[in-house]
């Protein structure tokens, strides 16, 4: 079903660091730097040395990751791109890991797609994954700034290894979804209590699937204008502290709240707060701030 070990063959194993300097040395001596495309050649070589080193490092990390957390011993696994949590469990026993999706490899089209080039804006770790592109721009490494290109499964591991290096990850987990191999960069382990707190911040919406939770008064809806008062200024996909939730209420509720002087039993009863998803919240906001 899935493969969590790096399968990149023996040849990467014996690549010693000294070889890197040898390659660079020979490149300088051969005078390639004066050649017309020297910069391009140099950069390709630089990239390949860097990528190989990352893959080598990942092999070491991966062994450690699987052993330290006894990953292969669990019966079930589950990951959620929205919460950014990867959970392994057997009965009551579970372990939760934070991850970001680096990218996907399609076995149908033999192509790689970086996560920053797709996926909904609601995926966790968008910011982290953009860092890979930034690094690619600084180093002019084409493969890190091209969102989608022809590739191989072996290279997909290499690209994921670069992501692990840049994001300071502890390993890679690679579930399969139909023809897509999903490369998850595992960042760290969170204790079960924190994991539950994170999961509690999300809600399954009938319209939008899994999203962050939000709270609104019973009168707010996605069709009619009733006013939109917020607990704090919000914008789509904003960062929220763990103790903060999106909260909004209508003009009528605001009148009751002002009359009561606070949110008390009476104003709360009038509002009759309901739980909605973040997308529904912003849909309601949109309806209310629209001019007409
Ligand atoms: Zn209301
Ligand atoms: Zn929704």
Task: Return the structural class.
Answer: alpha+beta
Mean pLDDT: 86
Low-confidence sequence ranges: 1-34
- The arrangement of helices and strands along the chain is HHEEEEHHEHEEEHEEEEHHEH
Query: Gap between N and C termini, in Å?
Result: 52 Å
Radius of gyration from the alpha-carbon trace, in angstroms: 24 Å
The small molecules bound here are: zinc ion
User: How many domain units?
Assistant: 2
Q: Which shape, going by the Cα principal axes?
A: elongated
In words, what does this structure look like?
The protein has helices spanning 17-29, 38-68, 126-139, 142-145, 153-167, 192-200, 251-260, 265-271, 278-289; strands spanning 76-80, 85-90, 93-106, 111-114, 148-150, 171-173, 176-177, 180-190, 202-205, 209-216, 229-230, 246-249, 274-277. With 292 residues, the chain is an alpha+beta fold. It is built from nine helices and 13 strands. The model is unreliable at 1-34 (pLDDT under 50). It folds into two domains: 10-195, no CATH class; 203-289, no CATH class. The longest helix is centred in the first third of the chain and has 31 residues, at 38-68. The strands form two sheets. Strands 1, 2, 3, 4, 5, 6, 7 and 8 form an eight-stranded antiparallel β-sheet that branches. Strands 9, 10, 11, 12 and 13 form a five-stranded mixed β-sheet that branches. A hairpin with a 2-residue loop joins strand 2 and strand 3. The protein binds zinc ion (ZN) (2 copies). Residues 205, 207-208, 211, 277, 279-280 line the site of one zinc ion.
